[in-house]
Specification:
This protein is α+β, with helices and mostly antiparallel strands and about 200 residues long. The chain contains 6 helices and 8 strands; from the N terminus they run E-E-H-H-E-E-H-E-H-E-H-E-E-H. An 8-stranded mixed beta sheet has the order 1-2-3-4-5-6-8-7.
Length: about 200
């Protein structure tokens, strides 16, 4: 389902696995390119990148948005799932957030040459708008522990540093396996509703 078009980039919401078929190769290529670069320098095979997309699309309650140029070129993506579906993150949030009422913004990426156009912000905003307010009161995400552009974007969007870190092991572009420190940020979805 197309949500909007801006400057030749269409924002598409993918609800069912069959809807992603025209964009699958574009997602895989974008995922590999984005995470190969800074700050992550991670290496993903095509099947690993495709596996990320497949797992998200098979998760009940997922939100999967693609930023597409032309017919099928994926230039960015933003995905999210209920926190309860991610045991690796769920356990680290125990006692910090209302776990059953927290949505996890799992993936966000923009191809380097399309950065600086507001696509990342738009993908975050649209996911926040689409999270079911009847179920979820909070969102959480993790980002590089370095104070980079992504961190600055989230800070401007009223996400708060939780002071909680997670070490994530990954295969680097040079073939080595190392851990990366990721920082959790959270946000109350509807602050006005909580004040009533």
């Amino acid at each position: 389902m197309e949500l909007l078009e801006r400057d030749g980039i269409r924002l598409i919401k993918v609800e069912r696995p069959e809807e992603v078929i025209p964009f699958r190769a574009g997602f895989v290529g974008a995922y590999q390119t984005i995470f190969r670069g800074p700050p992550y320098h991670e290496m993903f095979s095509p099947s690993e990148a495709e596996g990320v997309l497949t797992r998200i699309l098979q998760t009940p309650g997922h939100l999967t948005l693609l930023a597409v140029r032309g017919r099928t070129k994926v230039v960015g993506f933003g995905c999210g799932v209920p926190l309860a579906s991610r045991p690796d993150v769920y356990r680290d949030m125990h006692g910090l957030l209302p776990l059953q009422h927290t949505f996890y913004l799992a993936e966000l990426g923009i191809l380097p040459r399309f950065r600086g156009r507001g696509i990342g912000r738009l993908l975050v905003e649209k996911r926040l708008e689409l999270v079911d307010p009847q179920v979820f009161t909070h969102v959480v995400l993790r980002t590089s522990a370095r104070n980079d552009l992504a961190y600055q974007l989230y800070e401007k969007m009223e996400f708060e540093d939780m002071g909680v870190y997670q070490e994530v092991a990954s295969r680097r572009v040079n073939g080595s396996v190392r851990t990366d420190r990721r920082l959790f940020l959270s946000r109350v979805l509807h602050p006005a509703a909580q004040e009533e």
